[in-house]
Specification:
alpha/beta, Rossmann fold, single chain, eight-stranded mixed β-sheet, 11 helices
Length: 304
């Protein structure tokens, strides 16, 4: 049958942060980490939806230790406030799960193209601001959720914010490539530290991600098509979250690994996943890292 959430090792005594945990993959990830004993922080933009997710989690896992904390990845001020307000000296698991897909052109509070700003820069800044607490763990994991859509577009280091041309799907795919390049460079820099940087993707899982872009653009036919595909083709979030949970908890996960569903990269139990060759480009990974430090103002000093 393969690895499932039932195989998650005991997480008692460990603290985890999951971004975008108010629905979909993030909610399942937070719930299953809590079920196995972790103290879980649901980091969400919406207070109403975040607190509702905590209530659902506690209804299913009454003994869980779970809390909501506000985090808007489209606002670096919010990212800094989240990190400053997190009352724990040690962090064992960070799951960079939140994201946007194929939304109309917009800019974040700091002027970045929204998909690049939320999917990559917000998580880059968050991870860096939590780095000291991750390094305080005896065995920390940073899991960044990418997508097989990364295979459709490499980043353009000269136009990271799509200022010369914006195509919503291209921007999304580039942001998912950025997730993998970030993971690669973080893994390289963390060598010698008790921190494993890994990436995961859900295959095709039914979440709000597919329908939000068409809805924001007013494309009702597109939204209906995505809902139909979610019903007919996609796996449920409980299965889609398995690769993230595996990367966050399974023994033997190696740095810069990419975990996804085994069956045609779309469904099934988690295992090693194919990735585009450009996501293994060390020069591109370092260039993106340098640009991300400049854009966010966040530096990973503890890693040199």
């Amino acid at each position: 049958m393969g690895w499932t959430a039932r195989d998650i090792p005991d997480q008692s005594g460990r603290t985890a942060v999951v971004t975008g945990a108010n629905s979909g993959l993030g909610e399942v990830t937070a719930r299953e980490l809590a079920r196995r004993g972790a103290r879980v922080v649901l980091a969400c933009r919406s207070e109403r939806r975040g607190k509702a997710a905590v209530e659902r989690l506690l209804a299913e896992v009454p003994e869980a230790r779970a809390e909501f904390r506000p985090l808007d990845l489209a606002d670096l001020g919010s990212v800094r406030a989240f990190a400053a307000g997190l009352p724990y000296d040690r962090l064992d698991v960070l799951v960079n799960n939140a994201g946007l897909m194929a939304v109309p052109y917009a800019r974040t509070a700091d002027g970045f193209e929204t998909q690049f700003g939320v999917n990559h820069l917000g998580h880059f800044a968050l991870t860096g601001l939590l780095l000291d607490r991750l390094l305080a763990s005896e065995s920390a994991r940073v899991v960044t959720v990418s997508s097989m859509m990364h295979a459709l577009a490499n980043i353009d280091i000269r136009d990271l914010n799509s200022e010369h041309r914006y195509r919503r799907w291209e921007a999304y795919c580039r942001s998912k490539t950025a997730n993998l390049l970030f993971t690669r460079e973080l893994a390289r820099r963390a060598d010698g530290h008790a921190l494993t940087a890994a990436a995961a993707h859900p295959g095709y899982s039914a979440t709000e991600l597919q329908t939000k872009g068409p809805r924001l653009a007013g494309r009702r036919a597109g939204e209906r098509a995505m809902r139909l595909a979610n019903t007919v083709v996609a796996s449920p979030p409980d299965l889609g979250a398995a690769p993230s949970l595996y990367a966050a908890t399974a023994p033997g996960v190696v740095p810069d690994s990419f975990t996804g569903p085994r069956v045609l990269l779309v469904r099934g139990a988690p295992g090693p996943s194919w990735r585009a060759p450009w996501t293994r480009n060390d020069v591109a990974a370092e260039l993106l890292w340098t640009a991300s430090e400049r854009l966010t103002g966040v530096r990973y000093g503890a890693l040199g």
